[in-house]
Amino acid sequence: MATTSKLLRAITRRHLIAHASPSISSCRHLGTLVIAEHEGGSLTATSLSSVEAASKFLNKDNSLSLLLAGTGPSVQEAAANAASCHPSISQVLVADSDKFKHPLAEPWARLVHLMQQKGEYSHIVAASGSFAKNVLPRAAALLDVSPVTDVIEISESRTFVRPIYAGNALCTVRYTGSDPCMLTIRTTSFPVASTSPDSKTNAAPIHQVDLSTFGEDGNSRFVKQTTQESERPDLGSARVVITGGRALKSAENFKIIEKLAEKLGAAVGATRAAVDAGYVTNELQVGQTGKIVAPDLYMAFGVSGAIQHIAGMRDSKVIVAVNKDADAPIFQVADYGLVGDLFEVIPELLEKLPEKK
Hints:
Blueprint: H1 2-27, E1 31-35, E2 38-39, E3 42-43, H2 45-54, E4 63-70, H3 73-82, E5 91-96, H4 105-119, E6 123-127, H5 130-143, E7 148-151, E8 153-156, E9 159-164, E10 169-174, E11 181-185, E12 206-208, E13 240-244, H6 251-264, E14 267-270, H7 272-276, E15 297-301, H8 307-310, E16 318-323, E17 336-339, H9 342-352
Parallel strand pairs: 1-4, 1-6, 4-5, 5-12, 6-11, 7-11, 13-14, 13-15, 15-16, 16-17
Antiparallel strand pairs: 2-3, 8-9, 9-10
Helix pairs in contact: 4-5, 6-9
């Protein structure tokens, strides 16, 4: 009799587990959320790279949601364009409110927290830049998780490769915390595959985020935003970058770098030393504490090659360096090097290069 009772209890317990498991798994939403930026009614190039990176997490049980925030027609236009910009996007979520008129970290962090409460995402991905560096740590604190930053390779769903020691070593890290796994990616490591003009992507559905439970504004307020109008390509996504260092000696002399960039249709970059000396604004700084670039051609004039600078451009396809010091560290990473005076080399280049068409 005791044996029969045990058997009945075992059968009953097994029967309950078999019926309980589907309902538990069906409640679990294994999705990935990409925090995207938009400008002029379109996603930024860095956000497209974030989508490309996030697509590594996709499988039959996973989906990719894109989060946009802003106000008025611009964010709605960006959402319409984003819906068909990448085949991996399952849905576009739009938070349309005056609270997101400017990219302040506090409302954005609360928005990410709200989205996680609604969706229970397994991963939250953003491009490594000033925006994500401002928002993600706050959002991670609200969610009580630790973000993984500057990811350059996704080995598994929770195993990543990131640079350390200013890019001189690569570290493989495994995230063992609770959901969501939050990470920022270096966009230069996740280029977006080019699509043919004939290829068509079905538009993903667009959903408006319910902000009825969204909290009040925080302690920060928007003061102003300044941008430098230029016809030159964006430094972060340019195919050619011309960079000047402290050897240019003045802001007036730095204009020779700008002339060469105009002739080549290139973006202008600068070292931290040149920025600190006031030759150019800090938005042109390339390096560990500036922008990470990986153009097809990177030309460095008067750049010594400090470890912090090399960390921001070492992934460039071809590196050309011009410096008077034959022992400058920049020559150790350069594909082509010329020991010479930049004030002699650049005028000669300007004379011999054809005009940009």
